[in-house]
Amino acid sequence: MEKIRKFTRDQPEVRRRQLIEATLQCLAELGHAGTSVRAVCARAGVSPGLVTHHFEGIDDLIAAAYAHVGDQVAAMLDEAMADAGGDPLARLRAFIDTSFRAPMLNSDLLQVWLAFWSLVRRDPRIRAIHADIYGGYRRSLEKLVGDIAETRKLNLDVRLAVLGFTAMMDGLWLEYCLDPTTFTAEEASRIAHGWIDTLIEGGFNHLTRKPAESPAPIG
């Protein structure tokens, strides 16, 4: 009886996960334009009524799928950094290594991200999820880079440094997934590790923190 209760209690989440996975498959193969309630249900082998039971519609389902993928990617990166130990430099290098290995380097994942990115500007829910995913991504990196800068006594504008780092990482990942014949994953990793080498050698003098402005005189 306890097993039956547990199955009944877990079933809604299992169904939601099934629909989200089917949505991701549709986005990877058909793009946003081809992803509909009918296509998702056909892929999941369920009736359309199941979607409306768990989600408000296809837009709600796609938003849930975006949040799901963001959580999965964050979990992979967090696990890799945790395995690297407490040294922020080792954790940042683990972040790079994981970013340029399977399952992160995946053409299907690229298709899914492209579908989501195409919706960021016109769909407020997707925009909010995007801001949450990338906000967490940058905060994690700012903590690592900030700790490295503090340990090595670097006068660094951490925010600007991380913006440059994330742009480089996103660009390398995107270019590799679009055309892996241009360069290898190992070369992409070497480029990114070179960024870290430049950082710890104090090579980002153009990104130093500006001195705090003096308060305006009173009276």
UniProtKB/TrEMBL annotation:
Keywords: DNA-binding, Repressor, Transcription, Transcription regulation. The keyword Nucleotide-binding does not apply. InterPro entries: BetI_C, Homeodomain-like_sf, HTH-type_TetR-like_transc_reg, HTH_TetR, Tet_transcr_reg_TetR-rel_C_sf. It comes from the Bacteria. Residues 36-55 bind DNA. Pfam families: TetR_C_6, TetR_N. Residues 13-73 form the HTH tetR-type domain. PANTHER family: HTH-TYPE TRANSCRIPTIONAL REGULATOR RUTR, TRANSCRIPTIONAL REGULATOR-RELATED. This is TetR family transcriptional regulator C-terminal domain-containing protein. It comes from Dongia soli.
